[in-house]
Write a structure and sequence with these properties.
CATH superfamily of one domain: P-loop containing nucleotide triphosphate hydrolases
Number of helices: 23
Radius of gyration: 63 Å
CATH topology of one domain: Rossmann fold
Distance between the termini: 31 Å
Strand order of the largest sheet: 2-1-4-5-8-9
Helix content: 55-70%
Largest sheet: 6 strands, antiparallel
CATH class of one domain: Alpha Beta
CATH architecture of one domain: 3-Layer(aba) Sandwich
Structural class: alpha+beta
Number of strands: 17
């Protein structure tokens, strides 16, 4: 990554500045100089903000970088252009900011925006991204650096220059992992560890399942007792197989018993079935005879039903004549009713015709009056336009009068406002005259604040190290106390071990003495004669218990010794760590004391606290000074901000004054115009009024009178037409009703004749039959015909039932023959007893069958699981070994695979760094990786020591002085960039920016640092330095000078010649 251009608009002190890095590319090494507070570091902030949306170190948000002098109409934006791997990249970013609304007045909060465009070297656009997350991911993937790592490798801001040098192994690992893409090794190790954990959990679950399955086995009593004495899984499985075999034999024997009992039961069930069938036949015979008796008792009722069927059959034969007779009666009644209605309607029509004729005569008498109304409506219609125009002119005159009065009032308001504005403009001019004084005070406050900030940072570092020294001292005392306690435990454990060892020897000797054979040498003394062997009697169990106690004592003694050794290692490490921290405190105290002596803070209170090394009070004193200065600065900045507000208000007031003057002229012109229009309208109105008769001049419109006259004429004409039409319709309807009356009378005469004919025929038929009916009674008698079908069906059903019962009785008697009724209770008792015996036998057989199937299934499952578990334990063992190697969890390996790979990369970085460090320190210092043993090894491996050739010893980099730390950090940063670029697939870092740090170097170290940077420059890399050191200005011809204008803004100047 190599910068090309950086454009900053309303960003920090830069209103609209573009830095062209290609103008400084002649020697690649250039200097950025300028007074404190002019915005040198803001250049780095601009690059970091464009790439990552935050400033160097993440101290300030992007929206906080918006310039105080920025107008609401101008945006804050940063555009950064750089080259990388044969492509050109342009990133433009705007923070969240308050700007004028695009439509209407007032301001609104505009959200942050970003865009990244990719070009080839010929300027052709290849790709563009506009979403924040997409740009962030793209930049980090392109540069292989996040914002924090970018400031550690490419931009080295104030206070962060030595962070990578002093970082612990975990912090260095986070940076190197991203640069060398070693996260894969960590992921592999974590996946192996997780896989081992999950696999072990699965095996534990499977073992638990096997135990649960064994508990589910149904053991017979004798096998259950034997199972309690068996421990191995295979022996238990053999015992289960033996039980299944025995149970299978018992189940076969039980099946033979069941088959015999089933045969006896079948014979008894057949006898019971035959007896039940015979009892059922006797019961059927009894029920059939009872039913026959009931049917014969109904014979008298059935005779009556037969007579009723005969009478209804005769009546059905006469049904058509009776219905025709009934129809003539109904027709005669209906025709008589219609005839009566027609006569009544004819009388009503005659009355209506007479009434309508009278109404028609009355309407015709109003014909002359309607003609006069029509003539008056026509006259009113002619005058209506004149009256409407007159009314409009009156309204127009009233409106113009109101407008004239309103215009005069507005003119008076504008005159008053102009006087007030003139007074406000004069007051604002007086306030703006104080701006130069506030700018001078702000510049002085920024300079003083930078000095306090530097002193406070170094004081806080010393305080932090001092507190660490106190903590490490307490930890050392704690470790020493633990060491004393641990040594006492070792002594006690050793004594217990010797006692247990002596006791075991005594028991073994006493036991062996019982087995001594005359003539064989004693195992203790070697004598072949044994006149008085020991008489103590010790059992094997007692000797075994003594051996176990000895083993436990030996383990306790070994563990306590290992604990003491571990504590001694910890004490050694803690003492070394405490010594290094104390040396760092002394070095930093001396450096800061020298700075304080040269600074402007020489108050007696501060110097007395400094002499007593009371660094907490020094920090508190400087913090109070900084707080007071910040409050004073905030007041000054607030006053300057208020001046900007006043300035904007002044501008708005002048614009308002110009607008009001314009409005005053316009208002006067409009007033004259309205007065002229009012006079013209008044004259026209007078002329029109004279043409309208006096009785209608006060009306605003004649339309209601016209509508009234025309409505009366129209209503009269409509009534005449309606009455005439109704009279015609009534006369036609009277003719129709007269015709209907004649027709209905003829129909009535015909129906009456037919009725008399039917009465004569029905009377003759009744006289010839055996039944006593009147003609009028025949019609209601027809309702009884609905019973005929049911009566006929009932008689047929009765005859059929009677025949069936007789036939059924004959059949039953034939089946019974000579059979005698059996004793069913005795037969049922025998069958029930046999069924109970069979059920008990079958239950035993079923239980045996279920036990065999259940245990056989468990046997198959357990056998399969045991074989699978043996294979899985072997896999877990191999997986555990692999996980321990990758994660550094083994007994002999305490370094993870990723840390091992990173250490190899880091060794190469230190090798390259030593080439510069040895040269820059005249062969005095060289880097070494700090080696830690035991459990510390897992968390270390990337920390640095320096070998000091002057004293022939190795010490921590934290003990280097300020100038030495700068040289070491510079060597390490440069070598880190080179090694990263050398690795295949690594990133290309073609630029480095260093913010301060050269002021802590002596003359020789400064010379060596410049030589080192020039050496890097010779390799084609761009190096930018921010510094106040005059020697740098004299050595570096390419310079970018940041110059403050005194109004809160800064400008850029390029210089290519030495001072």
């Amino acid at each position: 990554m190599k910068p090309v251009k950086l454009t900053m608009k309303n960003f920090g002190p830069y209103e609209n500045v573009t830095i062209d890095f290609e103008r400084l590319a002649q020697t690649s090494l250039f200097l950025i100089s300028g007074k404190t507070g002019t915005g040198k570091t803001t250049i780095f902030d601009g690059m970091t903000f464009a790439l990552y949306g935050e400033t160097t170190g993440g101290v300030r948000l992007g929206k906080e970088m918006r310039s105080n002098f920025a107008e609401p109409s101008t945006k804050t934006a940063v555009t950064f252009e750089f080259t990388h791997q044969e492509h050109v990249y342009q990133v433009s970013r705007e923070p969240e900011q308050v700007l004028n609304k695009r439509v209407g007045e007032g301001t609104t909060v505009r959200p942050a925006k970003v865009s990244l465009t990719v070009f080839d070297l010929q300027g052709k656009e290849l790709k563009q991204l506009t979403k924040s997350k997409e740009v962030q991911s793209f930049v980090e993937e392109l540069l292989h650096l996040n914002a924090q790592q970018f400031t550690q490798i490419v931009l080295l801001p104030q206070g962060d220059f030595r962070k990578f040098l002093n970082a612990d192994s975990n912090e260095k690992e986070a940076v190197l992992r991203k640069l060398f893409n070693t996260a894969l090794y960590r992921q592999i190790a974590e996946q192996l560890k997780e896989k081992k954990k999950n696999y072990a959990k699965e095996l534990a679950t499977e073992e638990q399942e096997i135990k649960l399955l064994f508990r589910q086995i149904k053991w017979d009593k004798q096998f259950a007792e034997r199972e309690e004495t068996v421990t191995s899984v295979s022996d238990k499985l053999d015992l289960l197989k033996e039980q299944i075999t025995k149970t299978t034999v018992a189940q076969k024997n039980q099946l033979a018993v069941i088959q015999k009992q089933q045969a006896v039961l079948a014979t008894n069930q057949q006898a019971l079935t035959k007896g039940e069938q015979l009892v059922a036949l006797y019961e059927e015979q009894r029920m059939a005879e009872n039913k026959l008796t009931q049917l014969l008792a109904e014979e008298e009722l059935r005779a009556e039903e037969r007579a009723q069927v005969k009478e209804l059959t005769w009546l059905k034969a006469q049904e058509k004549k009776i219905l025709r007779y009934e129809e003539t009666i109904v027709q005669s009644r209906e025709i008589s009713q219609r005839l009566t209605l027609v006569k009544e309607k004819s009388a009503t029509l005659e009355s209506q015709i007479e009434e309508q004729s009278q109404v028609e005569n009355q309407l015709l008498s109003q014909q002359m009056e309607m003609a006069e109304a029509r003539q008056e409506a026509e006259e009113l219609a002619r005058l209506e336009p004149l009256l409407v125009e007159s009314s409009n002119l009156k309204a127009q005159a009233s409106q113009l009068t109101a407008e004239v009065e309103k215009q005069e009032a507005e003119l008076r308001v504008i005159t008053t406002e102009l006087k007030q504005l003139s007074q406000k403009i004069k007051e604002h001019e007086d306030v703006l005259n104080t701006k130069d004084q506030l700018l001078t005070a702000s510049e002085e406050q920024r300079s003083k604040e930078a000095v306090i900030k530097e002193l406070l940072t170094e004081s806080q570092e010393i305080l932090k190290v001092t507190e660490r020294v106190a903590t490490e001292g307490e930890q050392l005392v704690h470790l020493e106390a633990k060491s004393v306690t641990a040594e006492a435990v070792v002594t006690e454990a050793n004594q217990q071990y010797l006692l247990e060892k002596s006791q075991l020897a005594r028991l073994q000797i006493a036991r062996l003495s019982l087995d001594l054979v005359p003539g064989t040498p004693c195992l203790v003394c070697g004598s072949k004669e044994h006149p008085a062997p020991a008489q103590d009697q010790w059992s094997l169990a007692e000797i075994k218990a003594s051996e176990l106690a000895l083993e436990e004592a030996e383990v306790a003694w070994t563990k306590s010794r290992e604990a003491v050794i571990s504590l001694e290692e910890g004490l050694k490490h803690q003492r070394a760590k405490l010594g290094e921290s104390q040396e760092v405190v002394m070095t930093k105290e001396k450096a800061l004391s020298d700075k304080l002596q040269l600074s402007s803070f020489q108050e007696n209170d501060l110097m007395s606290v400094l002499k007593n090394s009371q660094w907490l009070e020094v920090v508190n004193y400087l913090q109070k000074e900084r707080t007071a200065l910040e409050e004073e600065s905030q007041k000054t900045q607030g006053s300057l901000a208020q001046l900007e507000v006043v300035k904007r208000e002044q501008k708005k007031l002048q614009q308002t004054q110009d607008q009001l003057l314009t409005q005053e002229v316009t208002s006067k012109e409009q007033l004259i115009s309205r007065q002229s229009e009012l006079l013209k309208v008044t004259t026209t109105l007078t002329t029109l009024v004279k043409q309208v008769p006096d009785k209608w001049r006060e009306l605003t419109s004649l339309a209601p009178l016209i509508e009234e006259r025309q409505g009366a004429v129209t209503a009269w004409e409509l009534k005449v037409k309606t009455v005439t039409d109704q009279l015609t319709e009534l006369k036609q309807e009277a003719i129709i009703q007269a015709t209907n009356q004649v027709n209905y009378q003829g129909e009535l005469d015909q129906v009456t004749a037919l009725n008399q004919e039917l009465v004569t025929e029905l009377t003759k038929t009744i006289e010839e039959s055996p039944y006593d009916y009147q003609v009028a009674d025949l019609i209601p008698s027809l309702a009884n015909l609905t019973k005929l079908t049911a009566l006929e069906a009932g008689l047929a059903s009765y005859q059929q039932a009677l025949s069936l019962v007789k036939h059924e009785i004959s059949g039953i008697k034939a089946k019974i023959a000579e059979e005698v009724l059996p004793d069913l209770a005795e037969l049922k008792g025998q069958v029930q007893a046999l069924m109970s015996e069979l059920a008990a036998a079958e239950k035993i057989g079923l239980l045996l069958e279920q036990e065999i199937a259940y245990n056989q299934e468990l046997l198959t499952t357990l056998s399969q699981k045991q074989k699978a578990l043996e294979k899985e334990w072997q896999i877990l063992s191999e997986l555990s070994q692999l996980s321990e190697v990758a994660n550094g969890d083994g007994p002999y390996n305490k370094m993870s695979l990723e840390r091992y790979v990173l250490q190899a990369y880091f060794e190469e970085i230190l090798r390259v760094a030593n080439q510069r460090l040895i040269q820059l320190t005249n062969n005095r210092y060289s880097f070494e990786i700090k080696v830690e043993g035991g459990s510390y090894k897992k968390q270390t491996g990337l920390e640095i020591n320096v070998y000091d050739d002057n004293v022939g010893a190795t010490r921590s980099v934290n003990t280097l002085s300020g100038g030495e730390s700068f040289i070491a950090a510079l060597s390490l940063s440069l070598s880190l960039a080179e090694v990263v670029q050398q690795q295949a697939g690594g990133i290309q870092i073609e630029a480095m920016f260093i913010d301060e740090g050269f002021g802590s170097l002596d003359e020789d170290a400064l010379e060596m640092a410049i030589d080192a940077l020039e050496l890097v420059e010779g390799k084609g890399r761009m190096i930018g330095i921010i510094s106040h050191v005059r020697e740098l200005k004299q050595r570096i011809p390419q310079q970018l000078q940041v110059i403050g204008t005194g109004a809160g803004t800064s400008q850029i100047q390029y210089h290519t010649e030495l001072e």
